Predict the 3D structure of the following.
Amino acid sequence: MKLTFLGTGSAFTVSGNYHSNMILESDTKKILLIDCGSDARHALNELGLSYRDIHSVYISHLHADHVGGLEWLAFTAKFDPAIQKPNLFISEHLVRDLWDKTLSGGLSSIQDEVVTLSSFFHVHAVKEQGFFNWEKTKFTLIQTLHVMSGHAILPSYGLMFAANDSNVFITTDTQYRPHQIHDFYDSANIIFQDCETSETKSHVHAHYDELVTLPEHIKEKMWLYHYNPCKLPDAARDGFRGFVQKGQCFDFSDKDTLF
């Protein structure tokens, strides 16, 4: 199984990088798209891929750099008779808002057809503290604290899964909450960590200045991504694996690509 980063930038990334969406390729060459931001079609095209290559998609939360490309994926897949409807894996707490607040404005405008989210995807709503299976691999949703909107927490979920001999933890977007996700840090062999690098902290992402205070045994298995378009600190010097680069591939059968 291989994990490739379509981009490594934040929501405000600029030309030269893309949003921090990923593709996970199974041993049977099927592809799971992990988040589908506004620039996903361009990022996929740069790797020689298109909507036709996407077997399934996982959505962590509803910000545009994670869902802004779903309308494109839904429309192009629906009107191409040569491909099957993609699977959509998503927390049950996000399904209604994904359609009502994000996608229905564009996707419901179809001639002579009343459509729902299921018209475009095979929807797999993952229950609270649940998981989904894809290509014989179990993916557990890990709820993180990303944004507090008023008195409510915006639902956002990372992923934990096993690939070959590696336990992999992808945080997706999260504040610096080491006590909340400490057990997942400990049980993972490799961590892909949301990392803000701007001078001004947004307080909705883990910032490099915070992450650098983590214990050495955690940092030494941590790759950093979702960073801002600015000069980056020396992550290797500070004990991390490093900053993930756009297009970087992690082959879980080849440990040289992991560390």
